[in-house]
Amino acid sequence: MVAAPEHRPSGRTLDLIQGSMSSARVARRSPLLGSFHRVADGTLLAVITATAVVAGLTLHWQHRWTVAFNQLETTRTLAQRLTESTALLEQHALRGTSQPQRLVPTKASNLIHLERPTVSQAPKAEPDLLDAMQDLLQKPIRTGY
Question: Structural domain of residue 90, as residue ranges?
Answer without folding.
Answer: 56-94
